[in-house]
C-alpha cells in the first residue's frame, strides 16, 4: 500500500504543497549502485548527479538517470537558493513583466529556461471550506487540471486508513472538476474575481491564478451559472 | 562576558560566591556613588578576595530593594539569565524586575509559565517557526501559533506594551485581542508572520490609543484593501514608526497625508509598492523629520516640475539616515537621491533593478554608509567602488537578481567580496550570493577581515567546487573559521567534505548559528560539529548524507542548543525514537507525510526538528508532525486538540 502510494507519487513528489524537498523516493526509483553505502534504499538525497552542469568529483559514472527525474538546475530545487519568499515573488514578478515587455522578440526554443524562471512563482495557497489550515501547491509541477485535482484530493482527503484527513472524513474519489461531488474547485485570478477551475486552457490558468479554494458546491452556484453561460456563449 | 560566565558556574562553590560578592559590592558601591548605568559585562576582571564565612551570607545583607536597584542596570537577557541562576533570592529579584522578555522558541516553554514568572513584563519577543521556513522547507500548518501567548498575556499581564513576533501564525483574533486587552499597547512588530488580514491591522490602528510602532516586515497578509489606514483615529498623534511595505493594496492618499500631518514624532515610514512616485512629494512634505524612509514604487513618469518638487522635498529630509523601498527605480531618477547620500547610513537597493554604472554614481556619494543591501547587478566593479568610498561599511548583502538565468552579463564573482573585504575595515557581516567561488578568495577574505561576526556565503550551484582548482571549498572555510575568532553565524555552501566540518568544529568556538546545505560525506561531519562547536545554539541542515550515529552520540549536546533542523538527511525513525527516549527534555518532531509507524525503523524520515523544551510535547501538531513519545511502548503520539 505504501509503496503504491510512493510509486504513484514519484512524479508528483515535487508538486506537493508541503514544500517537500526532493527526497523520499522509493528504492526502485533510486537505482544507485549499492556500493554507495549509505545511499542504498534511503530517502532520495539530491546529489551532484542531479546537477549535471557542475563538474564535481561526484559526477555520476553510472547511468542511473533512467528511472530518476530529469537533470535539474539549482533553481528547481525547493527552497534553493535560500531566498525569502517575498524576494522570490518580487523576482518572479519582475521577470514576468520583463517577458511581457520583451514580447516575442527572442524566439527561445529552450523551454527549460522559461520553466526555470517561473519556478519561483509556483506555490500558491489552497484553502478548503471547513478546514482551518490552508496548504500550498506548486502549480508548475503539474501539467493539467486532472493532475492538480488529484493532488488536491490527496491533500485534503487523505486515503490512508487510520489517519484522518484534514476534513476528518475518509476518502471517496472527489471529482473536483466535474461538479459531481460535494465540492468544487475555484480560483481567484489576478483581477480578484473568483472563477471555476477548468474554463480556460491550462497555460492561461497558471499565469492568472492567484490562489485556490475548494468550495462547497452549494456556495458556488453563482460561479456555476457563469460557467454555464460562458459555455453557452462558446457554443453559439 | 567574563563575569557572567563565571556566574553560571555556581556549582563551583563559595570561591565563586565571593567573586560574585565582590561583583555585587562593586556594583553597589558604584551605583550609590555615581548612579551611572552600566552592565556587568563591562566590569574588568576582579581579583579574588580572601574567603570569609560572613561573605557567604552576603545575600542576607542586601535587602530586596538594593538588589532590585542593582539589577535594574542589567539589560542583556543573557546576563539576566545568568544572574537568576545564582541563588533563590537573586532568581526572585531578577524575575520581578525583568521588563523585556525574549523567548527564542515559542515551544520551549509554556506561555503560562512565562506570564507568571515575570510580573513586570512590558515587552515580549517570540520566535516560532524554524529559520528554514523562510525557504518553504517547513510545511504550512506546522505550528507557531501566537494565540496561546496572546491569550495568556491578555489574562495576566495587561500592562504589556510591546509585542514582537517572528515567523509565527497570527490571526485576526490575536490582533483584536491585543487591541482589546492591553491598554497601554505601544509596539507591534511582526516579522515573516502570516495568518492575518488587514482587518486585524485595522483593529490595532483603531483601538490602541498610544500606538507608537506598527511594523509589518515581510509578512503574508490577506490583503482586503487599503482601508485599514483610515482606522487611525483623528486624535492619534503618537505614531513613531509605520511599516506596511509588505502589503499589496493601495491606501488612500488623503488618509496617509492626514496621518503624517498629525504625527510629529514619526521617525520611520515604510510605504508599500502601490504608493506611486507622484504622490511621494506630498507625503515627504508632511514628514520632513523622518529618519528612515521606505519609498513606494519609483518608476512613474514625472514632468519636470514634479521632478523639481520631489528633489526639493527629498533634500529637506535633513535627518534621513536610512533609505529603502525604491521599487523599479529608474536610472534617470537616481540623481534625485544625491542630496540624501552624504548622510545615509543604511541603503536597501535590493528591490531596485539598477545596473552597475548607475549604482556607482549613487554609492560613490555615500561615504557614511554602514549597511548596504543590493542585488548582484552591482557586479565586481560596483563593489570595488563600495570598497573605495564606503569606509564605514559594517554590513553587506548581495542578493541574486535572477539575471544569471537570462545569460545576460552580470559579472559578480568572488572578486567583488574580496575587494570589499580589503577596502572596508569595519565590515563584520556579509550575506553573499554568487554562482561560484574559490578557496583563494576565501583565504584572502579571511586574512583581510578577521573581524567577521556573520559570514553567509551562498554558492548557488550545489556541490560547486573551487572553479579554478576543482577542489572542495574546505580550505577556504577553514581560513574563515580560523581567522575570524568572533564568528557568531556562518552559512556554508559549495562542495564540502567532512574535513571542512572538522575545521569548523575545531576553530569556530564562538559560533552560535550554522546553516548547511548539500555538503559532507558521512556522519563524521555532524559529529565534528556537535562535539566541537561549544557555543552552537542553532544548527540547520538540509540534504546532507548522515544522521543516526552522530546524532545519538552527541545527544547531550542537543540540550545545550536551542534547536536542530535536519531535512532530507539520513536520519532514521529508529534513531529518532532512541534519541527521544534518551533525552527527556527534547522534543523530537518528525515531519513526514507518511506515518512513521507504518515504515520500518530503519527508514529515513523526511525532516526532523529537535528542540529543547520544558513544556513537553506540544498539543497543536498537525497531522504530518509526530512528536516521538518518551515511553517506548507508546512509540509515536500525535496529541492534538482540534
Automatic annotation (TrEMBL), chain B:
Example of a GO cellular component annotation carried by this entry: SCF ubiquitin ligase complex
UniProt-recorded name of the protein: F-box domain-containing protein
Domain F-box: 62-103
Transmembrane annotation, as ranges: 7-28
Source species taxonomy: Eukaryota, Viridiplantae, Streptophyta, Embryophyta, Tracheophyta
CDD domains for the chain: F-box_AtTIR1-like
BP-aspect Gene Ontology terms: auxin-activated signaling pathway; pollen maturation; SCF-dependent proteasomal ubiquitin-dependent protein catabolic process
Single GO MF annotation: auxin binding
Pfam family, one: F-box_5
